[in-house]
Amino acid sequence: MRRISIIILLAILVSGGAYFFLSRGKNPVSMWTMTKEDTSVSFDEKQKQSEQIEQKDTDMYNQAITEQDKDVCLAIQDPDQKSECTDMVSAGLAQKADNPELCKTLTSTGIRERCSDNINFSHAETRKDKNICATISDQNLQNSCKQGIDNSILQDAIKNQTVTSDLCDQIDPSLQGTCRWNLQVHQDSQTFASATKSRTLESCAGIADLDLKNTCRDIVFLDQAVKQNDPNICKSILDTEKQALCTAQIGRKSDVKKFPTIVASLDIESCKMLNDQNLQNQCHDQIIIMMVRNNKDPDLCESLIDEKLKTSCKKIPGE
C-alpha cells in the first residue's frame, strides 16, 4: 500500500513538471501576470501638471469670491476647495442680503458661524444693541462688538456733554478711564465758568485740574487787584503774562488819575512819574502846546514828540 502511494506521488510530480516546462515554452515572460509602471510621463511633468491644476483652482476660487459667483466654483477640480468656495460665496451673498437665515444653508460649520457672526455684528453696531452682540459665537468678535458700541455711546455723550458717573460704570473697562477723565473735564468746565462769574477763590478750589484751577485763581486775583487798585495783589498771579497785564492795568489806572494834575502843573519832568509810556508822551506834548499858547513861542513846537502836531502847533501864536 505504501509503495502504491509513492508511485502516485511521483506521477503527479512528473505531470506538474511537464506542464511547467510546456508553459514556459509558450510564454517566455512568466506564467504570472506582471504589472509594469507607465514611464511615458516623467515625474517633473506630472509635478508641473499638478501645480497648473492647483493654480487654476486658486484662480477660480479668487474669481468666484470677487464676483460672488457660485457657478465659477463648479470649475474647481479639488472637491474640498470647491465646497469651501461655494460656502464662501454663499456667505458673502447672505451678508449682502443681510439675512442670517441664508447662513444656515452652508455646509462648513466654521464658515456658517462666521457668516452669522458678521451679520449679527453689523446689526448690533447699527442698533447700538449689546444684546445682539451676545449672539455672536466668536468670543473675540463678541467682545469687539460690545466695546465698539460702548465707545460709540461714550463719544455721543462726550459730544452732547452728557457723560455721567453711571455711564462710566456701565461701559467696557477699557473705556472707563477715558469716560471718567471726560466727566471730570466737563465738571471742571462748569465749576470754572461759575467761579469766574462769581470771582471767588473758594469756587476755584473745586476744580480738579491743576492748570485750570491756577488759571481760575489768576483771573480772580487780577479782578481783585484792578478793583482795589492794589499792585501787590498782582504778585499772587502765577502766569507771568497775566501778572504783567495786572501791573500795567493798575499802573494805567493810576496814571489816568494823575494825568490831568500833572498837565495842569506845566511840569514836564512830572510826566515821567507816569508808568505808561504813551501817557508820558501825551503829557509832554500837551504841556508844550499849553506853553506855546501861553508864551506865544512857536519855537517850542519843535520839542513835540508827535511830529504830526508840529504844523498845527506853530499856528497857535497867530490865533
Question: What does this protein structure show overall?
Answer:
71% of the residues lie in helices and 0% in strands. It has 15 helices and no strands. Among the domains are: 48-152, no CATH class; 257-319, no CATH class. The chain is elongated, with a radius of gyration of 51 Å. The chain has helices at residues 2-26, 43-67, 70-73, 79-97, 109-127, 130-133, 139-160, 165-170, 173-198, 201-204, 210-228, 231-234, 240-265, 277-295, 310-314. The longest helix has 26 residues, at 173-198. With 319 residues, it is mainly α.
Counted by DSSP, the helix tally is 15
What's the overall average pLDDT, rounded? Answer: 85
Helices and strands, in N-to-C order?
Answer: HHHHHHHHHHHHHHH
Helix content: over 70%
Question: In short, what is this structure?
Answer:
This protein has 319 residues and is mostly helical. It has helices at 2-26, 43-67, 70-73, 79-97, 109-127, 130-133, 139-160, 165-170, 173-198, 201-204, 210-228, 231-234, 240-265, 277-295, 310-314.
Keywords:
disordered N terminus; 15 helices; about 0% strand; elongated; about 70% helix; about 325 residues; mainly alpha; single chain
Helices and strands in order:
Layout: H1 2-26, H2 43-67, H3 70-73, H4 79-97, H5 109-127, H6 130-133, H7 139-160, H8 165-170, H9 173-198, H10 201-204, H11 210-228, H12 231-234, H13 240-265, H14 277-295, H15 310-314
Helix pairs in contact: 2-4, 4-5, 5-7, 7-9, 9-11, 11-13, 13-14
